[in-house]
Protein: Cyclopropane-fatty-acyl-phospholipid synthase
Amino acid sequence: MADAAPRLHGLVEQLLGAPFPLRVRAWDGSQAGPPGAPVLVAHHRRALRRLLFKPGELGLARAWVAGDVDIEGDLYTAVDLLSGLVWERGDDARTLSQALRDPDFRAAVRGLLKLAGPPLPPAPPRQEVRRGRHLHTRRTDRRAVSHHYDVGNEFYALVLGPSMVYSCAYWETPDGTLEDAQRDKLELVCRKLALTPGQRLLDVGCGWGSMAIHAAREHDVRVVGITLSREQAAYARKRVADAGLTDRVEIRVQDYRDVADGPFDAVSSIGMAEHVGADKYLAYARALHALLRPGGRLLNHQIARRPQRDESAYDVDAFIDAYVFPDGELAPLGATVAQLERAGFEVRDVESIREHYALTLRRWVTRLEDGWDRAVRLAGPGRARVWRLYMAASAVAFERNRIGVNQVLAVRTPGSGDSGLPLRARTWN
Structure:
């Protein structure tokens, strides 16, 4: 009798102590759960074994990356519904030790173990990276950046489009084009930095060179772009040469800690500071402060998480850390501003563009899905599945205000107190 799905759905609800909002289709073809809801497809019993061996986000991620589970229907709706159970249980969620004292919980675990059957779960998918003991050294940062960015330039071109900008775009309207929105974001950064011809710009985490090329071409500045990814650097150098800008743009494979040819008139850091780490952030901010001339500006574009009641209990996102950004860390906006001020910066403007990132991510997901077969050929099925889930889940997180993204404009204000900003500073809008 094909009854795995009804049993699985009932046991999961018993385990959670709450309704399970997705429909389930099991490996035996049976289905159960609310009609019309997105369908969680368990292709094999080993999906259940993965979840039991690593309850919560990591087990679910392993099953997803390995292709043991799938979603049919709207992926964003499914992620949003699951997030309330896996990622956002909140302070009222039971700890494992509390749950184990509940006879119904223990009975549900026994039932799931019986349904999963032997043997032990297989090894984690090969795309998984283990978190090291020594974080954010030059070596570990190079390794983490290589894991994320050296997937292949063709894969990123498929997802990002011709702009090759891998950070939040800036939309005039939701139905605008991705190319226009990314160009407008780069121009917004340049205007906030008040770039003028002949100035020197340091672009920290320059990616595939888009900011460096835009600033040099549109504002006639000289740019040093640095990245730890050799694949990115090679691609960026070719783009610089094709644009005829080799006299104004230099792309280096270099750690920000090793830049020694300041001062610069401006520094842009767009989507890079998430890789720095909480323990290193003050040193990072001080390094950028030291590289700026007095009166120079920093534009720091960075994703932020919401503050926790107990910051000491904060832990990194298991899926993101294992499969997407190894050793990456998000900080609350207030903590970032405080560290910039401790480093000597005067913070002059903060702009939240949270909704813009949700729009950007949905466009990237659409591009990935439209080019799915090619994406699988370029990066492999596991990696393509990682990126699809990561970008869709991130879009939902921005939409629901679980995370945000902010542009912080800071100045190395000289002793005279003259910041160099006009009285009505937001002339860039």
Q: What stands out?
A: The chain has two domains: 4-116, 138-411. The first strand starts at residue 23 and ends at 25.
